[in-house]
Design brief:
By secondary structure, this protein is an alpha/beta fold. It is about 35% helix and about 20% strand.
Length: about 400
């Protein structure tokens, strides 16, 4: 089978690009051919190594690939794929029309809430609480027609909610949609997608420690790994840490546009001597940070489509404390592999951290259960077998 991957970036950048890379490598290992249509690779890491994962890769004009880019129609004509596997793209219609004309199966993985929420946040701007409703009049009431313009003359600009809803419904015409969690599946169904088009396929961590994880350390070290953005809830984490009753140290690994505000908040809360901002770290350096951690935290206010950092923590045998939002409950079994706190309830989150930091038997048992769950539920080979079936149906 020939699979043409389509994504706006052609290099290692975030979870989307890592998923594309892992799937391409896995499919090629199973004897399939993998090709890539991309927009650009500026700002990505190891673009050369990334392109080597595919039989061939080509810049695509519909993805902003520049003057020398080929049209998607030309790329399809040249590669003759059996299936087009779409990821992050600006609009579905040009790709869907080409696939229809060529008689090619079209599948898309939904990585975020952009299809079902005009803002992409899936929480209300006015209070930060999760939105449980389908796209509609509430989007206007919550000013969903305004989007940020960091490079424009004004801080915001108008965007059409109706156009975004039309875009969502156009995606529902694809042969199949792949989602990572029950939450994401329900989101699509609530907005009118046919259930038989939606396939649940939880992502996996394609790595192996080569041995059992190190024991959960006694040192009360808390670890956060992720972007420093409002949706990731690091401000909620800092409010939580201010309520933790027992001694701790916290490492915050990541970068983002909220970094300066978060550092200022840390200082204002008097946490600077216990909270360290370490910046972005490459994957090969994260093992040591996970091994040093007593507990890993996922404080998102954004309803995570899945939450890959949780699987990475569990692969290292570390319990996780997180807010009960989005796809997180798909992998975090409350009181078994970690602890869930109600949405934005910093008091409950702090109490959960107090428990994991002080109860050695609890932390150890949760770490062991977390490692076992990753191995039994989120294996790479079963993942690839299911994906192979979805792409080839």
């Amino acid at each position: 089978m020939k699979i043409l991957f389509v994504n706006d970036r052609g290099g290692f950048f975030g979870g989307v690009e890592q998923n594309v890379a892992d799937c391409a490598a896995g499919l090629r290992a199973k004897g399939h051919e993998a090709y890539l249509a991309f927009g650009n690779d500026s700002g990505t890491r190891d673009a050369f190594g990334y392109h080597q994962l595919f039989q061939a890769s080509k810049r695509c004009s519909e993805l902003g690939g520049g003057n020398e880019a080929a049209t998607f129609k030309d790329i399809v004509s040249k590669t003759q794929p059996d299936c087009v596997y779409l990821h992050k793209i600006p609009s579905i219609e040009p790709f869907l029309n080409v696939c229809r004309d060529a008689g090619v199966r079209a599948v898309r993985m939904i990585h975020d809430h952009d299809l079902c929420c005009p803002t992409g946040y899936k929480y209300f701007r006015r209070n930060g609480k999760l939105c449980q409703h389908k796209a509609g009049w509430r989007c206007w009431a919550d000013l969903g027609f305004l989007e940020k313009t960091p490079d424009g003359p004004l801080p915001v600009r108008y965007t059409s909610i109706r156009s975004k809803i039309r875009e969502m419904h156009a995606n529902f015409k694809l042969d199949a949609l792949v989602v990572a969690s029950e939450y994401m599946k329900e989101e699509l169904l609530t907005n009118g997608c046919d259930e038989d088009r939606v396939h649940l396929l939880a992502p996996v961590v394609r790595l192996s420690l080569g041995c059992d994880p190190l024991p959960v350390p006694s040192k009360p070290q808390i670890l956060y790994v992720g972007q420093l953005l409002r949706g990731k809830g690091v401000d909620l984490l800092l409010d939580t840490l201010n309520k933790v009753r027992v001694p701790f140290e916290a490492k915050i690994i990541g970068a983002g546009n909220a970094e300066d505000k978060l550092k200022a908040l840390t200082e204002s809360l008097g946490l600077s001597d216990r909270v360290s901002f370490l910046g972005w770290a490459p994957n090969e350096e994260l093992d040591a940070h996970y091994n040093d951690a007593r507990v890993v935290v996922v404080p998102s206010r954004w309803p995570e489509p899945f939450g890959m950092v949780g699987l990475e923590a569990m692969m290292h045998g570390r319990p996780v404390v997180a807010f009960d939002v989005g796809g997180i409950p798909d992998w975090l079994d409350h009181n078994i592999t970690g602890l869930l706190a109600p949405e934005q309830d910093c008091d409950a989150f702090a109490a959960a951290l107090d428990r994991v930091l002080t109860e050695d038997d609890t932390a150890s048992a949760m770490g062991t259960a977390a490692f076992d769950r990753v191995g039994s539920v989120f294996g790479f080979e079963p993942y690839m077998e299911t994906l192979e079936s979805v792409l080839g149906s």
